[in-house]
Each structure stands twice: as C-alpha cells, then as structure tokens.
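## retry 2 of 3
previous attempt timed out at serialization; input unchanged, resubmitting
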Amino acid sequence: MTILKHINNNELMSYRFFILFFLILLSARAQQKAEFGKSKTKPKLVIGIVVDQMRYDYLTRFYAKFGEGGFKKLIENGFSCNNHHFDYIPTTTAPGHASIYTGTTPRHHGIIGNIWYNKDEKQKVYCVGDPEVSPVGTSSAEGKMSPSKLKVTTIGDQNRLHTQMRGKSISIAIKERGAILSGGHTANAAYWFRGKSQGSWITSSYYMNKLPKWVIKFNESTIIDNYYKNWNTLYNIDSYNESGPDVTKFERGFKGKDNARLPYDLQTLKETNGEYDIIRQTPFGNSLTVDFALEAIKKERLGKDIHTDFLMISFSSTDYIGHNFGANSKEIEDTYIRLDKDLERLIKNVDLFVGKNNYVLFLTADHGATYVPDFLKSNKIPSGYFKEATVHLELKNHIQSFYKKDSIIENISNNQVFLNHRIIDENDLNIENIENEIASYLLKKRGIHEVYTRSQLENSNFNYGMGSKVKRGFNPERSGDVCYVLNPSVVAYSRTGSTHGSGFTYDTHVPLLFYGLGIKQGKMLRRSTVSDIAPTIALLLDIAFPNTTSGNVLNEVID
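## retry succeeded, writing output
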C-alpha cells in the first residue's frame, strides 16, 4: 500500500496493462506449445500424378471438353498454381520426375538427362539402367533397372524413414524411368510396362525377388489384351475445334497405315508397331495405368492404416502421342479428353476405398512441349531444325585443326561438349582457352542461342535468365565442359511430332494442382517452381524435407 501511494493513476494503469499483457503472453506460449505437440489429422494416402509432356495450356484449351469429375474437380475443389515452371535445362522425362519428388534440380540430384555420357566409363548410360540387378517378371534387359544413379532422397523416402518404413511407397508408370525416379530409393515397389510380345507389368530385383500374386494375376488376365481395339475420337471429331485438321504433314502416325487419320485399328496395326508397344502409344496406355494403380491400391491396402502411404502414378502415353502426332493434333485432344475420364475413375475409386477426406493428391507434368516447327513456320512464327550431327562434326574438325591434336573433344551429346582431360593435361593445354574457343565457334552457328562454359558455370553467379537454368541443370560431376542452348522453337528432332528439352516457356510451363485433405480451395498466380512440390507435401505431412531440397513451401496451398 505504501508503494501504491506514490504511484499516480496513469502509472497504475500502465502497471496493470503490463501485468495483463504478460499473462496473455504466457497463455499464448502455453497454447502454442500444446498445439505444437498436438497431433493433427494427416492424409492416409498421398497420390502423386505426373502427366508426361503436358503443357499448361492443355488445361485451358480442352477445358470445355472435360467432365466434372476429373481435371475440373481438381481445379474447382482444390488449389491450382497457374504460373508453375521448371527452372532448369534439360526439360526431359528423367530429370523432371526426379526433380518433382526430390525438391531440387539436376545440379544436386544428378539425373542430368534420360541418357548421358559417363566420363569415367567412356560410354553413354541410361538414367535408371543397373547391370547389378536382375529382371523380375521378364527375362528382358528392360528389367535391369534401379534408382542407383539418383544421388539424393525423395519425399517418398522421407516418409518411409519418418514412419520407420511402415508407410508404403508404390510407383507405377508405363516408362521405367517414370516409375523408378518417382519412387526413390526405399519404395516397396516400382512397376513399369514391358511391351513387345510380352505385355505385362514388371520390376527388378532391387525391389523384390518375385512379383506379388496380384500382379501375376493382373498380367495373366484379359485386361491388357482388351485394349487391342479401335482408337477413335471419344466424341464427334467435328466437335474437336481446339486442335488442327485430322490429317497434316506434321504427324508421323503408325506403321502399316498410309496416313495419320483417325480411327486406328490396333488389332490390325499391332504386328507392325511392336505388338503390345502400340498400346502405350495410345490413350489406352493411360487407362491401363489406372487399371493397374487401382488394383495396387486395393491389394496393397494403401491408405488403410495409421501410417501415410504414397502412390506415385506417371501417365507416359501422353508423351508418346505428343512425339508422334504433335501438340496441335486431334490425337492429343482426344488423349486429354480420355485422360480426364481416367482421372475421374481414379478419384471415384480412391474416394470409395480410402475415403474422401483421407487422402491428398497433386498433379503436375515432367515437362511441356513445343509445337512442330514446320507447323509454326506455316503460321509465320520463327522456328526451325538444328542439324546436330553436321554441327558436331564441324566442331570436332575445327578444334582438331586449331590445336593440331586429335580427340580433344571426347563426346558431344545432350547439347553438351565433353573434353578429353587426359589429352589436354598431357599436352599442357589451357582448358579454359579450349572451352572459350568452342563457345566462340558454336555461337556463330545458325540455330544456337547461347553457350556456357564449365568455367562460367562453376565460377559465376547466374541468378536469372537462361544462364540460371543451365546452371541448375549442370551437375559438376556428370555434366560436360561446354553447354549450348538452341534458339526458341528450334529443335534437333524429326519434322513430325512435338519434342521438348529447352528452357523456354513452352517446355517449362506446366500444370500444378493440389487436392484433398489439408489443401485450400483457390489458385495462385505468383511463380512457383518444380522444386516447391516436395517441401510443400513434406510440411503438410510434418516430415523432413528430402535431403537436398532447394525449393520453397507453397504456403498458399496448405489449409
């Protein structure tokens, strides 16, 4: 009381306010601690979907043809990242799948292409090829595959570690690289499709010693053979106004048929088109993938216990069809209309088996695609074809003549020049001068946009532009000594069908959709990148990020 007599009214009010503020702060901290330790409802199943070679504008071009239960359902009831991009070169299948699931780029995860030149072995290697494993479900070398060349962990790996290996991871794709690089190192299973005369889902001894009974039963059923049928447009072809004419000079088509005109009788064409391989080159390859994925969900009881499971699905057929018929074809439009139906079928079955509020799903692509350059030329848009073999031979001859030495250039592939360091060292040549001479020569060649040397990529900061994309795709251990970039819409490819691989927007801009438990409803227009997907899923699950994550969490997505 004696102390309070000396405190005026204003001081007393300030003192009381301080005490009240202190008590509120203590209460908030206690509540924060309680919330942090409190377990939240997690998805029982995470479904990752990658659509191979899906441009972002396929969503908008074909939107009116979609039903209510596929793409539209994901967009309208989930979250859409409309400005989503790959931020590295090359934009191809293997680096794409690896980047989506590792949360980083080829610079760190090491998958620098589908095939690349191995400087130690002095030969080209396949991204998932592994001579140390055995085929399972086939006698073919197509079964000698594993993720051994992937240098880092995936989001699926982190979930397996977090759950003490109790949470399952199963990965499925027609293409082995799509299945294996999505699944990561610890997947319970990765399955891919062996075509030719076999027509069955296979794996390797990296995952198991023999196929599960349910896979054997699926392979022995009539499901696969039932897709030897007529491929015609799902709706009247005259209503397909979002694509070009049915028959153009920009399409390749199938062997045994004079032109690329729908319909295609697969039963008749199979013998001249690799038998079961023809199924993978039609929309029915996607349908077959869903058939197999649904069987995996049921037989492996995914999403049926307290530990989060992962199911990775890659739709490969979209890529085969794009390469064959091009981005403006009737075949591509019909493929996406049919894929929409397959997505609806997948979602309905997951709703029934796992529960509508028990899973989270994301859908994206591993790269986009350019329009066929000759098609662009016909519409007065700059484009062209790069005579790769000719330029490579001329470059080798120039360097040999300039330095009076043979074999200074060891290999040229994937838009990269590999130098023979042994010969350079033995002849006391300056490697940086050689790199610069190569760069100077290539920059004079028609069709080449930019050139970067190893010295530049290792010693300079590229924070924006094409240089930053080349650097993110450049792995110091595996990449070459000089990298070149072609002009926009200039490709080293055939004159029919679309391709990809560049750092331009037609190859980098792809869809990214999130849907399900813990996902907000809405859309985002700010730029996101491929490396953002894995950390966003990791935060949603409250697990560790993949070990070299370089992306950022998309806070807007999480509810």
